[in-house]
Amino acid sequence: MTDPLVGEMSPAEAESVYFNEYPPPKALPKHEALARAFINLHVEENRRVVLVTSGGTTVPLEAQTVRFIDNFSAGTRGATSAELFLEQGYAVIFLHRQYSLLPYSRHYSHSTNCFLDFMDEAPPSSESSSSGSDNGPIMVRDEYQDQMRSVLRKYRYAKQNNRLLLLPFTTVSEYMFELRSLAQLMRPLGANALFYLAAAVSDFFIPRSRMAEHKIQSSELPAHLQNTNDATVDSDEIYTGENEEEPSNRKKLVVNLDPVPKFLHRLVDGWAPEGSMVVSFKLETDPSLLVYKARTALQRYSHHLVIGNLLSTRKWEVVFITPDAPYERWLRVPKSRRSKSISGVEDQVGLAEAKKGNTAPAEQVERDGVLDGSHDGIEIESLIIPELIKLHDKMVEKKGQSA
Ligand code: 9Z3
């Protein structure tokens, strides 16, 4: 049963109820130690640090999880943005869904070309053939040399200079624990801290107290086995759905989810450092809701920027919703500059929706114009990050003046 009082609690009370339900993730102490050392280093060097969250959170249906509900996100927004922040001198804590896209390796990991397609075997050298071996060195193919060299150099630079910390999560509760700890650890950074919350976070979850321990069964078990397996499942969550036309012993699964407490409130008002900048994303599929929902989020949590995007068009248009003028500003990649190398299932969704005209109103395009990029196939993050950094600069400057 959902606690009827949860909806009436203050954000701080809802937070403690939520965090008391779950054991912290096993990796949390290790992640905290890594983050503490990383943050201290950059505090000493007076460097800005951005926490980029990326990828979708899962909602497990069982404690020993076989099935889970997932949130859509490939991690492209987060991984691409992280690279751009690094280029602008930020240190990046990359809190990401395990196995989603990562900065730099994203260029090779989930593309239509497997990384092996980027490689070739060079002919054996005269020495190796004279010694009877036909093994030549493995090389990057000629056509990929330049791009891979450039990615490799940036990757090496970030690694060798301790600019990038990768921390994985899987479930929504792991995400919450990690976010809370990281935000609190970032306090010594003050206005040098930036939160860029691009992860697609589930709004719903199953409280631990109502979660089945073991794999939920789809057929009736003999009576002597029933209790051990379904011990923690409420009768309203899973029940026998007798199909009149086709009698069977198969069960229907009815999932009953609670709302996840609004963590943004707590992040802004409690966990994050004083003077830091908080940027959240709002994802919608209905174009008529996007601006309204993004603005409502900004008003509700009183943070600094909501970046709105539609699932179908997120790769080439976003809207900045700010508390100050111009309040609403669209950034768009011009049609001729949209990446031609679109691949993967998630993009097929986007293309199909865009063909249906499921995009922001045309008059908006005219009113706001288009921010231009300089070469073919630009990624929208290369428009988002510079605009965002300008806003962060202003905040840091203001803070400096008032200090
Ligand atoms: C986003 O809107 C991200 O831009 C995307 C990026 C998930 C669409 P991809 O990873 O996609 O490049 O494939 N994130 C949504 C963040 C979110 O869940 N926000 C919550 C909400 O919309 C509030 S914090 O309610």
UniProtKB/TrEMBL annotation:
What biological-process terms (Gene Ontology) are attached? acetyl-CoA biosynthetic process from pantothenate; coenzyme A biosynthetic process
| Record-linked InterPro entries | CoaB-like_sf
Q: Which SUPFAM superfamilies match?
A: CoaB-like
GO MF term list: phosphopantothenate--cysteine ligase activity
* A Gene Ontology term for the protein's cellular component: nucleus
Q: What is the protein's name according to its record?
A: Uncharacterized protein
